[in-house]
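Blackboard transcription, Thursday session:
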Amino acid sequence: MNRFSGQTTRSTRGMALVIVLAIATALLVMGASYLSTFSQSRSVNPKILEKVQADLLATGLQKIALLKFKRFPEDFYHSCFFQFAWDDPVKRPALFNYSPTPLEVFHGDPILRNGDAAALLPLSVFNYTTTYRLLSHRAYTRDSVEILVALQMTRTSPVQTYALKVDATRITER
Amino acid sequence: MIMPRNGAGMAGVRRGTTLIELILAFLILVIALLSVSGLISFGHRGTQKDFRMVQGIQLLEDTMNRFLVASCSQLLTALPGTTPVTFTAPLLGIPLGPIRIGNTDYAVSATLSKQAVSFSTRELDITTSPPEYDRTRPATWRFSAATDRNGRYDGVNLPHRVVKIHVIVGWTELLHNAQRRVEAVSFAVDFTP
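(Written on the board underneath:)
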């Protein structure tokens, strides 16, 4: 009888320690996973700020680009039609060779193309470009002009593209 | 007489060992709980800090969006000269200055300045175009050199039309009194003819 009891006691000896160690390990694992989740959420925050800064800046740049379009609609259309002909290998030989092309000049203002860093201070933007696209260009009918701002806040950030479409009506000259 | 294998003190030794085990186990459990609670507390403080940051960013976005939909001509009127002006009190109905959200005090300010811009184009030059000039045939077109002579919105050649908006939202962290701030830049444009 005693021999049997002694064997049982020996087999369960140290079980409390094992159980507590198991519980402590489980708690540590839970704590570690909590800390891991927390550290991941912290790394997301700067990205949120960066995205908001990019959104707001792009909106302002699109407005400036729209001001240019409204100021020089004829120059924009002439530049676009010349570019369409320039991109056509059949029509290109008959064209005068401009470098940069009229459309490249239209896209090339410092404020619209990362050339005026002082205007963006205190923000530091790695790179951005602004381009115009004439989406429908049947002569002397309704058009849709698209203003695209491609913006990269830092070297490692993804390039974010913002599009603003404007309906425009050209009136036939009489 | 039947003796236990390990002697008469065996039962007492077993009880004592169990007690030590329990004390040790309890100590280990307490140490583990303390470290985990410290970890959770650290995480909670970080979460609160992040929450304040997110609120600050939302306030920044909201304030800037209000400026972008405001009348730019009125913004230009609020700027007497070309030097930047910082506003820390409500302007055109846009809330600026101290704003309390939850138990955090945010300080919102906006610095506005007239932004000179110039636009360059190649103008269609009909005078140098060939005699067979046809407005539907680009081959007969001639363009001028790139010029910004008609596109200088600098307050001299043409009135300013662009306002640079710089919004700052600042707050103080409860722990260590650390100053935090988020900022954004954008532009408002006056499209009035």
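Lecturer's comment: The first helix of chain B runs from residue 10 to 69.
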